[in-house]
Amino acid sequence: MSAMGNGTLVLLRHGESEWNALNLFTGWVDVQLTEKGMAEGRRAGELLAEHDVLPDVVYTSLLRRAINTAALALDAADRHWIPVVRDRRLNERHYGALQGKDKAQIRDEYGDEQFMLWRRSYDIPPPPIAPGDPYDQEGDPRYAAGSVPRTECLQDVVSRMVPYWETTISRELRAGKTVLIAAHGNSLRALVKHLDGISDAAIAGLNIPTGVPAIYRFDEELRPLGTLAYLDPEAAAAGAAAVAGQGGK
Ligand SMILES: O=C(O)[C@@H](CO)OP(=O)(O)O
């Protein structure tokens, strides 16, 4: 924790999940990490320790790929004992009817343009998931307080994420803490869009790699000093390119 001034924000997308490896749309489906994803979590913690970026508190979604990545990273950084806050507002974007579908098959079936609109446009959500679909989260006890979305576009994620940032996470930073957010490709894209002031059009080009920590530092007004800085820029560039290419032939 810094003695004065604002704290440091660490963003960490979960390591590779079983459905990342299978190239399936995931959203709110609670899939496990692969062995590679677990190794990415441990490596993320080593990077935090090497760079002396030691979280004071961790925020995660309600999904095990983020929860377990954070636990592995914090264990590797010897910070497994810090307070944890979990909140559905950090969940991945709900992918609607695409949850559980193969990305390459959807691209083949609907074409490149529709695939990219569903995947990366700011305000076009995929079709809603049907009630009773095996990958619907309706009735899941973890979401008992509040309704479960049937689909979300990135704008919907910004609408749930930014108020949480403003009322809760930013306060920890104003108190000088180092805050780790362990979350998801699209929930982190929503936050980076807000912090870096990225336009609705340009955000389509931003892809977050799995398992590579990135940091923001802030001025007195909690404006970011520079853009998102990855602790391993080479791994981040390779990982972002891999995400961008998902669904490709
Ligand atoms: O399937 C998902 O939930 C997300 C993240 O894995 O995929 P995409 O990068 O295609 O938005």
From TrEMBL:
EC top class, as a word: isomerase
Classification via PANTHER family: PHOSPHOGLYCERATE MUTASE
Binding residues for substrate: 13-20, 26-27, 65, 92-95, 103, 119-120, 185-186
Residues of the site described as Transition state stabilizer: H184
CDD domains documented for this protein: HP_PGM_like
InterPro entries referenced in this protein's UniProt entry, alphabetically: His_Pase_superF_clade-1 (IPR013078), His_PPase_superfam (IPR029033), PG/BPGM_mutase_AS (IPR001345), Phosphogly_mut1 (IPR005952)
Pathway: Carbohydrate degradation; glycolysis; pyruvate from D-glyceraldehyde 3-phosphate: step 3/5
Molecular function per GO: phosphoglycerate mutase activity
Known catalytic reactions: (2R)-2-phosphoglycerate = (2R)-3-phosphoglycerate
Domain of life: Bacteria
Protein family according to the UniProt entry: Belongs to the phosphoglycerate mutase family. BPG-dependent PGAM subfamily.
EC number assigned by the record: 5.4.2.11
Protein name, entry field: 2,3-bisphosphoglycerate-dependent phosphoglycerate mutase
SUPFAM superfamilies, alphabetized: Phosphoglycerate mutase-like
Function statement: Catalyzes the interconversion of 2-phosphoglycerate and 3-phosphoglycerate.
Name of the gene encoding the protein in the UniProt record: gpmA
Pfam families to which the protein is assigned, alphabetical: His_Phos_1
Keywords: Gluconeogenesis, Glycolysis, Isomerase
Organism: Skermania pinensis
Active site, UniProt feature: H14, E92
